[in-house]
Amino acid sequence: MIIDATNISKVLSDPIRYKILLMLMNHQGMESLCLSFGSEGVCNCDIMQEFGLIQSRVSYHMKELTSSGLVREEPKGKWKYYVLNKETVRNYIKQLGSDFKL
Amino acid sequence: MIIDATNISKVLSDPIRYKILLMLMNHQGMESLCLSFGSEGVCNCDIMQEFGLIQSRVSYHMKELTSSGLVREEPKGKWKYYVLNKETVRNYIKQLGSDFKL
DNA sequence: TTATAATATCAAATAATATTGATATGACGA
DNA sequence: TCGTCATATCAATATTATTTGATATTATAA
Fold first, then answer.
1. In angstroms, rounded to a whole number, what is the distance separating the alpha carbons of residues B29 and B22?
2. Which residues of A touch B93 (CB under 8 A)?
3. Cross-chain CB nearest to A101 (options B13, B25, B99)
4. Chain-wide mean pLDDT for chain B?
5. From the C1' of D27, which residue's alpha carbon is nearest?
């Protein structure tokens, strides 16, 4: 897998995105907070609630996160569930390690 | 040591800075390219030459790199030599690893 | 179908970063 | 000291990213 280290870095550099990633991390395999449904995973509305952000802002950041490969989308019905893609973080780290011979 | 992961990410996210870091990496313990002197390390002028950048631009990016802790300065006479601080990269990686339980 | 809820997109405003050229500072050596 | 070279800083501008509110999609349920 090809990793663009500066691109992943850019995505990680936004505090909100970083916090969203941590949230996804901590909800691995847990129930959605989403009030209306008890499905697996974290959806847009969970993130809006958690951080008090408006919808389009969350949407923007989730696009950054998914298009970088840090997060995977799982659409279910009209919802979209997001799951952290640890593999990308691992590959990013691997890339840094090899670039900087750590 | 305290690592601000989003801050390090921001610094790493600029392609020029990333390339400068790689350059420092690859010149660990080698002679300066600096034409006038054969001292250890990489100085401002080496970076200017290598990437064809003007002085103030290099200065700006080196400040970003040093103030984040990714690079150490070693002033010698009127020159400033820069050395990669692998420790910071390592700590950054460690932080990611612990945040994302890798 | 139609209504509604969730998410996406868009254009405009704002904010943050990067770049440049000019000038300043600081360290030498003559 | 004075002149020169290396680096730093500054103000202006350019570029890029983020935020917002409005509108568009899309899925589903009634």
1. 14
2. 93, 96-97, 102
3. B25
4. 89
5. A78
